C-alpha cells in the first residue's frame, strides 16, 4: 500500500482514528488525575581534601577528590545511609524503598555530588534530603579514616603522651541545603496529553493499516477491474433510500439513474460484433445488489426503446415481483411445469418493460432451471424480445445459477463495494467459466462517490435535453431542439 492509498484509507476509516484518539487522550487524562503529585528536593555536597598550604599538595588533593567522588555517589543509596535516616525521621518505609527515591549524581571533573529525593509530601522530601546529606558525610569520613595498627599503642619508644588518632583525608561539606519544593515534578499534564494525542494517532494509523492489509474487499471499480481482468461496465453509487425506492426513472437526475444509463450504454458497446440477447445477472453472495441491478438495467433498456423482458430466475428468494408490485403466484415455474404459456403469465410495467415473475417457489429449483424446458423458454423469449435480462440466485450458496447461466449468452457479475472479497469473486468467476459462460463484465454496486453535484451540472437541464436560450423573441421557437440527445446515450 503506497502513501496515497494509505491516506485514502485514513480518510475512509477516520472514525477508527477518532476512537483511538479519544481513548488514548482519555487514558492520559485519567492517569494524570489519578497520579499522586511527586515533589523533588535537592541538596549538594562538596568533597574536599585535608591538605596543607603547599600548592602541590592542593593540586594533588584536588585530583584525589575528583578520582574518588564518582565512587562516593554510589554510596548514597546504600543501607549504611538509608537505614539510619529511616530510624532518625521515623519513616514508614524500608531502607530499600527509600533508596529507590534517592538519586546521586557527580558531575564530571567536579568534586560536587548532587543528591535528589522524591516524595509525595514536599516538606518530607526536604527533610529526607538534608538527613541523607548529613548521614552520607559521616559514612564517607568513617570509610576514609585509616585504621590504627594494633601494635602502635604498645610501642615502648613512645613518649608519655600518645600520638593523635589518624583522621580522614577528605571532608564533606553541604554547600546547599534542601528547601521545601512548591511545585510537583510529576505528573506532567501537558506532556501526558501530548503523549496521548501522539499515541492515539499512531494507534489509529496502525489499526487502519492493519485493517487495510487484512481487508481483501474492493474499494474502487478500478481495483476490481485489475483483479478480474474483466471490464467494469458500471459503478452504481450507494443510496440509503434504495430499499424504499428500488426503481430509478429514466428522466431522473440522481446519480443512480445516471449510473444505470452508463451501464446500459457500456453493455451495448461491450459486444458490438456479437451482442448477447440473453444476459444473466448474478453475484457471489446475497445482498450484493444483483436484483436491483437487473431490475434497473432492464428498465433502462426498455425506456431507451429496446424491447426487453425481465425474468426472475431466483426461485429461492424471488424479489422482482415485490419491486414492481406485481403478482407472483403465476410466472416462470408455471410455464416450466406446463400449467400456463409465456404470454399468459407475462406482465407489463410502465416504460414498456415485460416482466416474467418467478411464480410459486418449487421444491427443486436447481433441476427446473437447468432443464431443457428452461432452455426452450429462454429461446422463445429471445425470439420475441431484443434483450432478456435474468435475475439469478447467488453463485456460491446454491447451485441454481450455474445451470441457468450456461443457458444464457452472457453474464454480469455484481460485486458490492467494501463487502465482496477477492476469494468470493475469484470463486464465482471460476464457477461461471467452468460451464462455459461468457462473462461480459462486472458491475460495482453500492460504491462510494464524491459529494459533488448531480449529473446534469454540465449545462444540461433535464437529462438528454439542452437548455433553452434565456431570451427568445416572442412568437419564435428556440433554435435549439428540445430533445437533442446526450452524446453517448444511444
TrEMBL record:
Location(s) in or outside the cell: Cell inner membrane
Main location: membrane
Compositionally biased spans, kind Low complexity: 471-490
Residue ranges, annotated region (Disordered): 143-169, 470-490
EC number: 2.7.10.2
CDD domains in the record: BY-kinase (cd05387)
Catalytic activity: L-tyrosyl-[protein] + ATP = O-phospho-L-tyrosyl-[protein] + ADP + H(+)
Gene3D superfamilies: P-loop containing nucleotide triphosphate hydrolases
Residue intervals of the AAA domain: 277-406
Domain of life of the native organism: Bacteria
Any GO MF annotation of the entry: non-membrane spanning protein tyrosine kinase activity
Start-end of Polar residues biased regions: 145-157
Family, as annotated: Belongs to the etk/wzc family. Belongs to the CpsC/CapA family.
Keyword entries, A-Z: ATP-binding, Cell inner membrane, Cell membrane, Kinase, Membrane, Nucleotide-binding, Transferase, Transmembrane, Transmembrane helix, Tyrosine-protein kinase
Bilayer disposition of the protein: Multi-pass membrane protein
Protein's UniProt name: non-specific protein-tyrosine kinase
Polysaccharide chain length determinant N-terminal domain ranges (all copies): 1-89
InterPro entries, A to Z: AAA_dom, Bact_polysacc_biosynth/exp, LPS_length_determ_N, P-loop_NTPase, Wzc-like_C
Lineage: Bacteria, Bacillati, Actinomycetota, Actinomycetes, Kitasatosporales
Amino acid at each position: 500500500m503506497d502513501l496515497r492509498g494509505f491516506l485514502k484509507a485514513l480518510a475512509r476509516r477516520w472514525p477508527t482514528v477518532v476512537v483511538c484518539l479519544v481513548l488514548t487522550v482519555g487514558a492520559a487524562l485519567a492517569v494524570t488525575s489519578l497520579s499522586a503529585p511527586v515533589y523533588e528536593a535537592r541538596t549538594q555536597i562538596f568533597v574536599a581534601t585535608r591538605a596543607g598550604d603547599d600548592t602541590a599538595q592542593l593540586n594533588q588533593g584536588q585530583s584525589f577528590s575528583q578520582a574518588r567522588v564518582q565512587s562516593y555517589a554510589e554510596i548514597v543509596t546504600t543501607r549504611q545511609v538509608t537505614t539510619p535516616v529511616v530510624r532518625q525521621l521515623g519513616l514508614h518505609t524500608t531502607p530499600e524503598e527509600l533508596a529507590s527515591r534517592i538519586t546521586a549524581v557527580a558531575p564530571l571533573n567536579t568534586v560536587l555530588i548532587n543528591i535528589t529525593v522524591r516524595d509525595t509530601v514536599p516538606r518530607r522530601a526536604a527533610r529526607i534530603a538534608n538527613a541523607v546529606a548529613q548521614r552520607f558525610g559521616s559514612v564517607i569520613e568513617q570509610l576514609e579514616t585509616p585504621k590504627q595498627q594494633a601494635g602502635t599503642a604498645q610501642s615502648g619508644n613512645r613518649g608519655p603522651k600518645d600520638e593523635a588518632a589518624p583522621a580522614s583525608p577528605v571532608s564533606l561539606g553541604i554547600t546547599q541545603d534542601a528547601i521545601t519544593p512548591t511545585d510537583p515534578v510529576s505528573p506532567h499534564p501537558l506532556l501526558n496529553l501530548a503523549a496521548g494525542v501522539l499515541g492515539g494517532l499512531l494507534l489509529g494509523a496502525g489499526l487502519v493499516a492493519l485493517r487495510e492489509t487484512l481487508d481483501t474487499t474492493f474499494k474502487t471499480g478500478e481495483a476490481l477491474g485489475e483483479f478480474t481482468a474483466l471490464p467494469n461496465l458500471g459503478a452504481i453509487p450507494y443510496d440509503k433510500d434504495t430499499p424504499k425506492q428500488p426503481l430509478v426513472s429514466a428522466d431522473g437526475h440522481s446519480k443512480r439513474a445516471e449510473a444505470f444509463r452508463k451501464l446500459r450504454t457500456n453493455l451495448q458497446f461491450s459486444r458490438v460484433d456479437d451482442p448477447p440477447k440473453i444476459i444473466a445477472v448474478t453475484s457471489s453472495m446475497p445482498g450484493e445488489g444483483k436484483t436491483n441491478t437487473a431490475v434497473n438495467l432492464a428498465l433502462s433498456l426498455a425506456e431507451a426503446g429496446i424491447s426487453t423482458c425481465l425474468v426472475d430466475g431466483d426461485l429461492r428468494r424471488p424479489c422482482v415481483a415485490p419491486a414492481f408490485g406485481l403478482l407472483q403466484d403465476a410466472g416462470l415455474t408455471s410455464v416450466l411445469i406446463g400449467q400456463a404459456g409465456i404470454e399468459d403469465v407475462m406482465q407489463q410495467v410502465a416504460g414498456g418493460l415485460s416482466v416474467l415473475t418467478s411464480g410459486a417457489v418449487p421444491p427443486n429449483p436447481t433441476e427446473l432451471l437447468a432443464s431443457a424446458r428452461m432452455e426452450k423458454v429462454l429461446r422463445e423469449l429471445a425470439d420475441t424480445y431484443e434483450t432478456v435480462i435474468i435475475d439469478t440466485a447467488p453463485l456460491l450458496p446454491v447451485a441454481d445459477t450455474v445451470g441457468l447461466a450456461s443457458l444464457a449468452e452472457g453474464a454480469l457479475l455484481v460485486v458490492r463495494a467494501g463487502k465482496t472479497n477477492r476469494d468470493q469473486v475469484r470463486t464465482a468467476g471460476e464457477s461461471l467459466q467452468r460451464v462455459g459462460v461468457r462473462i461480459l463484465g462486472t458491475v460495482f454496486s453500492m460504491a462510494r462517490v464524491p459529494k459533488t453535484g448531480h449529473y446534469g451540472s454540465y449545462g444540461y437541464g433535464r437529462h438528454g435535453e439542452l437548455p433553452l436560450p434565456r431570451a427568445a423573441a416572442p412568437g419564435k421557437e428556440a433554435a435549439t431542439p428540445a430533445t437533442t440527445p446526450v452524446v453517448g446515450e444511444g
